[in-house]
Amino acid sequence: MFVLVNLKTYPCDPVAVADAVRDVDESTDARLAVAPQAADLARVAETGVETWAQHVDPIEHGSNTGHTLAESVADAGAVGTLINHSERRLKLADIDGSVRAAERAGLETVVCANNPEQIGAAAALGPDAVAVEPPELIGTGTPVSQADPDIVEDAVEAADNVDSEVSVLCGAGISTGDDVVAAGDLGAEGVLLASGVAKADDPQAALEDLVDPL
Ligand SMILES: O=C[C@H](O)COP(=O)(O)O
């Protein structure tokens, strides 16, 4: 299972969480990575943890003030990027452009979507993976894998119908090892989570619990 920890803009210490993710990654067969804010990418990557961006824009080098260039993200040490997170929605053409920009920079891609219908559309753009996240469950602590298992199974089917090479993650409310196991049982190859780790009093203990049954 792939466990991708999105730090959003939570007021955590990104390097401390990165150290914890790296240490727990070394103790498990699961694959762990962390997605800090763009400004924190380089110092997080320096910890040795697998580092992801939260977003890249559909642009090239040039006059794009305030945008995030995929090549700069890669130069900072990221190996992948989220695209179209529920809190950073893009138009369809811009999702496509961001996937192409990420590919150009050698970044792995996870395109997020709200529901199985959008997952099918996202998979058609050829990312490495898609992540289904019902927005109403994000940050609630109520896990999608238990609250809405059908959406995960339907997302897996929708992606498979379009491109069986595209992996499916699920996210929203995932915070325990049981949640991760339930996601895997529904066909997801990974989970995207945030508050369960970034807002935990002890992020390392939260991560250890997440991977314990894997
Ligand atoms: O990127 C992570 C997702 O939005 C899930 O967030 P959450 O784990 O706080 O529900």
TrEMBL record:
Documented EC number(s): 5.3.1.1
Catalytic activity: D-glyceraldehyde 3-phosphate = dihydroxyacetone phosphate
Class in the EC hierarchy, top level: isomerase
GO molecular function: triose-phosphate isomerase activity
Alphabetical list of InterPro entries matching this protein: Aldolase_TIM, TIM_sf, Triosephosphate_isomerase, Triosephosphate_isomerase_arc, Triosephosphate_isomerase_AS
Gene Ontology CC: one annotated term: cytoplasm
Main localisation: cytoplasm
Involved pathway(s): Carbohydrate biosynthesis; gluconeogenesis; Carbohydrate degradation; glycolysis; D-glyceraldehyde 3-phosphate from glycerone phosphate: step 1/1
Location of the active site: 85 (electrophile), 133 (proton acceptor)
Keyword field contains NADP: no
Alphabetical UniProt keywords: Cytoplasm, Gluconeogenesis, Glycolysis, Isomerase
Localization, UniProt: Cytoplasm
The keyword Amino-acid biosynthesis is assigned to this record: no
Domain of life (superkingdom): Archaea
Residues holding substrate: 6-8, 138, 173, 194-195
Protein's GO biological process: gluconeogenesis; glycolytic process
Description of how the protein assembles with itself and partners: Homotetramer; dimer of dimers.
HAMAP family xref list: TIM_A
Similarity-based family: Belongs to the triosephosphate isomerase family.
Function: Involved in the gluconeogenesis. Catalyzes stereospecifically the conversion of dihydroxyacetone phosphate (DHAP) to D-glyceraldehyde-3-phosphate (G3P).
NCBIfam families in UniProt: PRK04302.1 (NF003302), tim (TIGR00419)
Protein name in the entry: Triosephosphate isomerase
Organism: Haloterrigena turkmenica (strain ATCC 51198 / DSM 5511 / JCM 9101 / NCIMB 13204 / VKM B-1734 / 4k)
